[in-house]
Each structure stands twice: as structure tokens, then as C-alpha cells.
What we know:
Shape: globular
Number of helices: 22
Distance between the termini: 19 Å
Radius of gyration: 21 Å
Number of domains: 2
Low-confidence stretches: none
Strand content: under 5%
Largest sheet: none
Helix content: 55-70%
Amino acid sequence: MYSDPEQRREAVDVTRQELLVRLDRYLPEPDYREFFAWALSADNPDRALFTRIIALTQLGNLTGELLAGLSGADEWPALLRHAVPVNLYQIFEVVSDNLGIGLAEPGARPEARALLRDFDAVAAGDLRHPSTRPVAGLLAPLRSRCDRVSGFAQSLTAEYQRKIRDRYLADRAPAVAPDALEYSVWSGLVANLESGRDVLAALAGTAGEAAVRAATIERYTAVDRTVLGLDRSREELLDTGSKAILVTATLAYFATVFGELSGADPGYPAALDDGSLVAAFETAAALVRLQNDIGTPLLRMTRADRSDLFESLRDGRASNPLSTLRAAANEPALNRFRKDLEHGEFNICLGMMRTADDPGEGLRVLIDDLDYFAERYARLRRELDRQLTALDRRLRDRRGIELTRRFVDFHERLYSHRYDTLDGDYAI
């Protein structure tokens, strides 16, 4: 660990304070906005739980790990302030990300699928053609459909959200209708776009702004491609999956902070212009995608150990390969599969399995895919080392290089834990 508990707590506190300042702009529905402000305040006895389920706890851990020791103590407050916009964006990006829950099966939940695609189109369009038009106006056509979606059910934390909601209604707002707080997806999507605009505004006028904008647009177009099921090959699945998360955009954001906003690095413009920086960030994104979908234990196993593990799972009574995996849900190495199967989420390793009717054939497909992706992971690890070493020779300010290494390492540790524990409850 690079950071200490105090630094991680400070990262949480600074982000929470700034979030409270921006709530009037982020959340247009008054009842939900007041609930959210209370939930973040010391008046909420379960504030620590709320902080955790909106991903703020792990974002504080991540921020501390990324930034600790990269600058002197006098620069620490400034670095934390730079991290705030991207942290707030990550919090509300979860809202749109959660719309993908339950869509992994082809044809499942067509209304939710259409809503997610329409939101992604609005988000990508707003990034391509920036305007000052209020986000609530941009998303107004989606509001009636959002009002039919439970933000609690469409998440990984429904039980905890209802607990906090019920306490709020009992103690502070008995006149508020429970559904006003549960069916608040529209407000969350407005906050998603508003906070995304804030990330780009924080970089306005920099050379790095274009790279961050392009990577963020790709996030929404890649999600759309995933929802449509357009990818067939392993490399297509990995490429689209890597773009559908915010790793490249986040690392490019911090590279801009270090290369331009907190000092001028003479080597930075050329590394940005020739694509070397973004190429390294894209490699990091592919690594994090593999960690997210497969999990660290499986990626680190030998081919023989993986084969033995899946041989032990074979069950002649299973009707299909997914049933076999579900029956082995408590096997620690299968933690990431358990999450995505339980919640119907997309996973680059499970798509081909879904088309196999025979459990034995399905498991053979999965093992073959795992062997391929594990080898790909090892090669990508070596490629990232090579890319960062080359950048180290070109850049005077090496903080972005170190931050990239820490980012990948943080997620490697994160995805070795069960997703439903405090150590594993956050995915970028």
C-alpha cells in the first residue's frame, strides 16, 4: 500500500464535500436530491454504508493509492482537488452502467436495452458537440421511461439502498413517497452527464482534453456495441470491453494534470501527439478489463490448474454450462463469473458459452477462452512494462507513469476479492 488510512479518508471527505456542493446542479428531482444530501451527511447513522454503496469508499482508496507520495505534502491538497471531478463522474457513471444489468442474455429486457442505447447516444452526442444546453433538457425525452425503472433493483446493492431509504422516510421525510427515491434513475443519468461535462471543463484549453474526450465518447459507443452483441472474436470482445470502461479516459485525465496543469513537462506534448501515452493507457485498460471479467486468481493460474479446476466442476446433471458454473458459485476463483451470472451482466468470457447447449462443450469453450485470455494478459503485462519504460525515458515528470502502474496493480488486488465484500465492491 502506498497510502495510509488518513490519506484515504481525506480523499473520501474532499470528494464528499464537493459532491454536496454540486448536488443542486447534478440532481434535478428535489425529493431525491434532499435524500442524497441527508445520506451523505453525519445525520445519517448509516453514512458509512451509503458511502460504500455509491463507490465513494473504494474511490477514496483508489485515489489515495494513486496519488500518495507522488508529490510533496504541500501539493497533496491540490492533487486531491484535481481528482474530484473524475471521482464524481465515476460515482454517477455507475447509474448508467447499472442499466446494463440483466442484458447479457440476447434479447433480454428490450425496453431497458433501448433505454440504455438511447442514453448512450445522447451522452456521446453531447461529448462530440459540446453545448451549454441544460442536461435535464437533453434527457427530458427519456424521463418517462426512466420513471419505470427501479434504481434499487437495477443495481448490486438493492437491499442496502432500501434500508437507508426506509430510515430516511421514517426519521426525516414521512411525507415523501418511497417510489420518489427508488425510481430516481433519471436524476442519476442527469448527474452522470453533468459530472462528465465537469471532467472536460477541468481540462478546458489543455492539449490532453481531446484525448480524454475521445476516450469518453468511446466508452458510450463501446457500450452500445456490447448491447447490440456485434463482437464475435476474442480480440473484438476484448477491444470493445476495454473501451467500455473509463480506464483510458481516467489515466489520460491524470496525465494531463501532471503534464500540463501542475507543471509543464517538455516531453509530454510529443508523447501525447504521437500516441505513445494513449497506447499505454489502452494497454492498461485491456488489463483491467481482463481483471474485471475473469478475476486475478484465474488469470494467474497455470493452464494445468485451470483445467483441473474445471474438471472438478463437471456435473452430469447440469442442463447447460451456465448451470454448471452457477452450481459452483462459491468457488473463490470463479468470483467474477458468479457476479456476472447472478446479475446478468456482460462478460467477455461467457458470451461464447451461452450458445453451447451441452455442458461439456460449453466448459471446453470456456477453458479454451480462459487459456487464450490468460496468455493475452501475461503478454499485455509485458507490453505495458515496455511502454512505460519507453515513456520513462521521454518524460521529465514521471508521476503519470507511476500512477498507471499503481492503477493496474490496484485493480489486480481488487479483483482477487469477492465483489460483495468491502475489499471488492468497486469496479471502474
